[in-house]
Amino acid sequence: MMSNDPIIVLAAPRSFSTVTCAMVGQHPQLYGLPETFLFTHETVGEWWADYDETFRMDGLLRAVAEIIFGGQTQAQVNRARAWLQERLNWGTDDVFKALSESVSPRALVEKTPRMSARLEHIDRVARKFPRARFLHVVRHPLGQVQSRLERVHEKNSHRHMPPQGDISDQFGGHPEIVWFRCNSNIIMYLESISPERQMLLRGEDLLAEPEIHLRHFVNWLGLRADAEAIEAMKHPEASPFASVGPPNAPSGGDKKFLLNPALRPPRPLQQSLDGPVPWKNGGARLPKLVQDLALRLGYQ
Q1: Of 10, 35, 19, whose CA–CA distance to 125 is shortest?
Q2: pTM of the full predicted structure?
Q3: Which end of the chain is less packed: N or C, by CB atoms within 10 Å?
């Protein structure tokens, strides 16, 4: 693969995409970005108008600060902000290409979970980078939903909000549908991409047996697969974005990962796809369409 051909990680939220991107981005021939949200918009001006003064700016600010200005101090983040403001008429792909050229010959690894929710976002990458590779990272629907519900509970506790009924009510009582929609969108789009440019990876498998699956990943890309390269990928904490950023750009990925980025095995699941789910009453089970898709992705 060429250094200007990016690897795009596609995943539903809370599907191990942050740690996966950090891991593969530690390969000597790759460079993992934080969440930039770049490809959710056509131009930098549109991106800026949507995300100004929100946490979604942080990842790109940190990436520009680190790659273009050599670090992530508050001053360097301010320079990154000014750099982007001067380029509001650029396409978002122009910014991505500028970052790519700056880390060449390493290839960029990009992931933004929000991108997986809209086919037009994935299509924007494919149009701008016709040789991009796509890594579809999945997580068992039970684990993914439980992780999302725990995150909502943590946010509510942090805000000192009293419980308002079942937390799953905030997702219309069917939080598993987000898992289904995101992964269905990804699968639907990848049907238009040649098989050699895409790879499916179960996040639980990667974290449980990283060496096996990392070697499979680099062989797919035709990159170095020696022991040194594989060992580097087992240390996501070495990424320059594997920590909380400066006060003016603290985010850029999953908060739990930023606070504790070391590689950890996933928690084992004790439930099957056709068993009762913990966020529903009366022994309710996952909808059949969710079960069928999970079975297709190799889950039980």
Answers
A1: 10
A2: 0.91
A3: C
